[in-house]
Amino acid sequence: MITYHFNALTAWFFLNIILVYYVKTCDGFVEHSLSLSYPRIEKISSAPISKLYAFPEGSDDNNDDDDDFNNISIIDRFASPRIDDIGLPLADTLVAQFIAPSFQVFTISLTRSPLPTWLSKPLQDSSTLFFERGYLLTPTLIHGVKLASCWILGALAARAYESEAFDVGKDYSKGFSIPVARTLRAGAFATGLLIIGTQLDLYHQFGGRLVQLGESQATDVRLLTAVDELIKDIIFEASFLFGWRMYRANLTADPTNRIR
In sequence order, what are the beta bridge partners of 149? Predict the structure, then answer.
């Protein structure tokens, strides 16, 4: 169990290092000459609790369409992303890594469903006879790092950290069309990464060879188990992340939650 605790802390550390790097390089930390004036860090940190999700005045002058979505190359979206809400990547990570997987584990326990391999394998490899309280936390966090990494990359690819992706305008003047579209794009990209990661994991488990259904009963069981786990991960991640993103966008509709 000590090994898994170490792996969870290591994965969590490196994921946060990456997030801090992107936050440090985002436009919210430097002065720029764009038409939209973003809040300075000092202004956000000194705001009351009710305005932690505030948005700068004058943001309603942004484009109401998403026609310029493809104007930025895919490399620039990862190398020099525009992050208008410096806390949003961290909040996304919390939802994707901890909240959604935890509710999945809770649902599995409640319905008495078979444990997924990312939960059962650490328990089988452990030599501990009686597991201590919280023994499911470590494998959940390790699996959550993979899910959060896929979502963060998807959000960067879909430019989901730009103001247009979570601003519905005062009194819903802009609507939810762009926030919904960019959230779905990020989810589609993250789903593709998760599928590719699952295929690579299966390729490694079967000794570097490609397997198909029908080869043997053992391979069929493993492939069907992987598909079942993949579907569950997508459902839980999509539900919680989409709900969180729409809630975040809804906060910008209230004029009292916007920086004057």
Answer: none
- Determine the angle formed by the axes of helices 137-157 and 217-251, rounding to 10 degrees: 60
pTM exceeds 0.85:
no
Quote the CA–CA distance of 180 and 186 in Å, as a whole number.
10
For the stretch 85-129, pLDDT in tens is 999 999 999 999 999 999 999 998 899 888 888 887 666 555 554
Torsion angle (degrees, nearest 10) of CA 143, 89, 9, 153: 50
User: DSSP secondary-structure letter at 172?
Assistant: G
CA distances from 135 to 15, 92, 120, 128 (A): 22, 24, 11, 11
Rounded CA separation 253/77 (Å): 27
The C-alpha atoms of residue 69 and residue 12 are separated, in whole angstroms, by: 31
Q: Summarize the confidence of residues 172-200 as an average pLDDT.
A: 94
Here the tokens at position 64 are 């109401």
